[in-house]
Amino acid sequence: NKVFNTLFIDESTVIKNRETKFCEYILEILRRTPRCHLMNATPFEKSIMDIYTQLDVLDTNLLPKKYKIESMYSTWKTSYFWTKRNGEAVRHPKRERTGYKNQAEFKRSLKYVYWGRSKKDVGKELPHNYRTLTVTPTNDQKVCIGNGYRYQEVLNCPSLIEDINIATNRKNVPKIDLVCRLLEEQYQDAKVMIYVWNPKAQEAIAEELSKIGRKPAIIQGGMKDVDKWQIQQDFNAEDGKYDVLITNARKSLNLYGADVCILYSVESSSGLYTQICGRIDRSVDDKIRDFILLVYEDSPEYKYLTSIVKSRAEDSRALTIDAKGAIDHFIEYLEREE
User: Fold this and answer.
1) Are the C-beta atoms of 221 and 288 separated by less than 8 Å?
2) Does the model's pTM come out above 0.70?
């Protein structure tokens, strides 16, 4: 019998059918609630009928009837399938919704109830500092790469290769040493997220950070949701159990407590980088966060990232032949995307 002032429904695309039990519960609460806010990160352009169902639950008078919406704003294609009737083949038409038309008109009809904001809109309000830091491979690493071993393992987690007998630790892997120095010298009191793709490299970094007095935790993509949630809580809390979170997960994490994101593993897509960075900047606040990309200088990793940047550059003339210039351009590209 409780009466609420406002109802917020997150991930509101769960409202897809008025006949479901969930929808019945929502409607029952709405009868006693003067205001309702629907929240979702999925743009309605993906499926116009999804937004129709949600708004219809809010108020059946907001939009025309469903059949009119489908006629006025949906695009369709017709395909055919065959059945047998009395031993003869019969062709039947099947209509499928493919998208929507008259977008501007449809958006105008929603202007008093729909507030859309893109990632770029939100990103412009969030303060960020981007940096690229480079390290030089050891002589052993250079020899191994020259002998044909995969540079990803040699540079970032050499213990994956049994033949070369190089341990993955601070002494043998300059990137790990740089991570430790950053946390010792610049981010002593900061909460830090480190993106590391390989589980063995994650464990090695966590071990080295524990030696310098930090409190690391690891979240891997395959972990149970309840375990991920608990680690996030222990990291985000002001006096939490962990002050460093090492992960290879690019989705379903909200690490709003973090001050710094260190990108240990090089990725091939700017979209993946923004996805990773999004783990710590999902909350709109005034905290200035640092994003640091670690790259081996004069290495295949450097050249690979450079080639990715060049392939995505708006104008190749904007890039110098110097790899450092290309990586700086990559960071600028990320900033522009934000």
Assistant:
1) no
2) no
